[in-house]
Amino acid sequence: MKKMTKIVIGVMGLMFFCMLSAISYGKTAQAETVIPLGDTWTNGYWTDGDTTAKHQYQFTIPSDGKVTVTCQTDIIGYVYLQDKDYSETYNSLYYISAGSSETFSEYLKAGTYGINYKPGHGFDEGAYKIKVKFNAVGCNVPEPNNDFVSATPISLNRLQMGVLTDTNADDYFKIQLKSATTLKIVTTGEESREISLYNVDFIRIDYSNCYSGGARMFEKYLSPGTYYIKITGSNTSYTLKCVAYQYITNIQLKYSQVAVAKGKAVNLLSSVTPNNATQKTLKWTTSDSSVATVSSTGRVTARGVGYANITAAAIDGSNIEKRATVIVKPAKAILKKITLSKYSKRQILMKVKSQKNVNYQYQYSKNKKFKKSKSKTSSFSSLTTTRLSRKKKYYVRVRAYYTYYGKKYYGAWSKAKSIRTKK
């Protein structure tokens, strides 16, 4: 009899345990109903007397990214995005009107999260549905890195991609500079954030605020050593890139002033200092393209007689520039013809092919090497000599010149021509 009683008690105990397990499993299963990621709706129905736990759901994201929650409901409702224990709320749809659909987004770290649905006051029964979409951001920033000790080591020119959330609002990075340089810190993000730069003693030496989404850059000249970067924000993805930037300190031109014959060319650039400047490209400009043009490499071509200022300017933000004056000399003169004057056969009329913006030097002599020659200047392209010796052979040549600040810049002599005077 005692044995039978023990068996009955044992069976009843086992049944009671199973009932408790079933009840416990039912609550757990309900509390952990999984919402799939994507466009699939998870349907629910609130009935009078339901508890909040009955309308709690969970989802898991495999990596850091952006979660978008959408809810449609037949009654006034509320949706809360929480941690997996439903103890902390990240975001919510605090009011969804009956028969409408609402959406919100939140950046989250990889892990499991909860969705909690509640009806509005006075609504005892109604259907609703929820879906959760997820977009990964390709985060390559490891956790934890929420203080100086756990700061993520980074190198120059490598893109960091991270996520800042309500519970992970700070990311720290550590960088080593082997030489003195201007460090450019460039970030992008959807929401506002602050970027701070610290020295090895954890003292902030510079910072930049980005009060809205978009790109932000600031720079600081730094000595060799260890530095820390802190990015602070919430509910945003971001990128971070550090670039060691070497500005141009000097532009060396071959000439400060140079004379070039029309039609000829000359290279102006000698060097850019330092040799390892990050952006060595220069912007070349001319003050008068009808006189001289300049290429992107500093090669100047003389186009017309006169002068032009050629400027080489750095485009890296250093504001370094140098200027050279190019004086374009006249082209080689062409003596078109020489004749005896119709008024006197002892005078010679000389005509030269005209050039713009020049004067002319006419020269004549009885010696073909122009020893003991005589010269006359004129702004005209023709000139008649004074009375010369009778029945003598004369040699004639001409050249053009341009005057710049009192100095004459001559073109080449023309080919000489000869003619004999009469009595």
Would you give an account of this structure?
7% of the residues lie in helices and 53% in strands. It is built from 1 helix and 35 strands. The strands form 9 sheets. Strands 1-3-8-5-6 form a 5-stranded mixed sheet.
Q: Number of helical runs?
A: 1
- The CA-CA distance between the termini, in Å, is 172 Å
Strand content: over 45%
The residue-averaged pLDDT reads 90
Q: Flag low-confidence runs.
A: 1-31
How many strand units?
A: 35
The secondary-structure class comes to: mainly beta
Gyration radius, to the nearest Å?
Answer: 44 Å
Taken from the alpha-carbon principal axes, the silhouette is elongated
Q: Major sheet: order of its strands? A: 1-3-8-5-6
Main beta-sheet annotation: 5 strands, mixed
Give helix % range.
under 10%
Describe this structure in a few short sentences.
By secondary structure, the chain is mainly beta. The chain has one helix at 2-31; strands at residues 33-34, 42-46, 56-61, 65-73, 77-83, 89-96, 100-108, 111-119, 126-136, 152-154, 160-164, 170-177, 181-189, 193-198, 204-210, 214-222, 225-233, 236-245, 250-253, 257-261, 265-267, 269-273, 282-286, 292-294, 299-302, 306-314, 321-329, 335-340, 348-352, 359-365, 374-378, 382-384, 393-404, 407-410, 417-420.
